[in-house]
Amino acid sequence: MENKRDLLRSIPSVEKVLEDPGLVDLGNRVPRWSLMEATREVLAEIRQSIAEGNRGKEPRMTEIVEEIAVRAEAGSRRSFTRVINATGVVMHTNLGRATLSEDAVNAVTEVAGSYSNLEFDLAAGKRTTRNMHVENLLIKNTGCESACVVNNNAGAVLLALNTLAEGKPTIVSRGELIEIGGSFRLPEVMDKSGTTMIEVGTTNRTRLDDYERAITETAGVILKVHQSNFDMTGFVESVAIKSLADLAHRNGMIMVEDLGSGALTDLSQFGVEKEPMPQESLKNGVDVVTFSGDKLLCGPQAGIIVGKAEFVDRMKANPLARALRVDKMTLVALEVTLRQYLEPELLLEKLPTLRVLSRKPEDLKQRADRVAGALSAGLKERVRVSVREVTSQIGGGSLPAAGLASYAVALSSEEFSSDRIASMLRRCEVPIVARIFEDNIIIDFRTVQPSEDETLTSQILKALAGGDRR
Ligand SMILES: *Cc1c(COP(=O)(O)O)cnc(C)c1O
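That is the input. Now the predicted structure with pyridoxal-5'-phosphate docked in place:
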């Protein structure tokens, strides 16, 4: 057993390590900063483990070089990348929700790489607001008087309540105090807006007279929130939006509705349950409606506010609107998406997320069968491969009860746990994100694009047949 001092002295210098042919070669593929960072890190860790008495052997050069190479490559790889969504959750918030149409993507590319008329009126030759690119389209699509767009729907709710109810009460049903995705909790957003929340009713039942009794002299807002990501059945009661809007107006209050996903078209034509639409809320007398751009609208992340001019125009003038404004790439993607809604007969062809929602189970089964065949042939006994009927989720806080019939390839193995397989799939060149069910990896074909089937297959074969490198 050598002593610590000898071991420490045996650690090669950074210069020496970098002279290793393996790393010299790697240096042509990864940037110098990443190579240096990995080298210093690995050597420091070896030094520390010797110093702490956790290492009794001299470090070997091949071992050091291999570890540096892995880290340098990982460190230089872009973090934000496309993935194959095999989870079956269509509007997966962690995987970027809706995918944009080809036209929207092209417009983003064009505007991102050039100067643009973001806030410039080309006809008049003077400055204008960025909102103008989408406002008319929102008026056409929803029948609102005025519209404005912010960063996301949470921002839209914040802006609406801050503008219309700061220092005043906002009455809301206890059954609608929702949490979305862990970070949007309605009571917290309301609190930040400066309004005073007045909860009425109970979790499962709220009646018109509950709202009525809560009305105060200082008016304020009645807020209705779409429950979005959960479903209540049984002994439940809520107040129709029209009666609520009438009650608000009789008492000089403003009726605001947070619709969440806000589909602009009746989704039942695409084989999905109908979601409430902003144009219907406005018809029913709601003053201000907010909804997301990247849920069932199938556009970019955005918070869309439509409603009566007297209220929406006040929101546009609120300094918070500046803090919450959208950037040019979002705005142009939203403009293109909203234009597509003016030609409803082309929607299914244009919007990829609508196509994902409307994929037919029999087509998904065919693809699953084909991929399963290739995987069984390639993986032999190592991994059990089967095709299963599964239920995809719409996700993104929409239609929680409405699952979509789908087909999946299920993988399981004696050799690797399903957590292990999932992790190997996530480490592929185009990472594959799947779900685990009853110790099986489930690859749901609804959210895998048909053009990805081949990459999916070859990557799984490579990852699992090649065994377990890391
Ligand atoms: C999704 C959702 C939100 C949050 O919208 P983001 O665009 O994610 O900020 C707020 N309210 C409701 C009802 C929702 O469904």
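The first strand starts at residue 84 and ends at 85.
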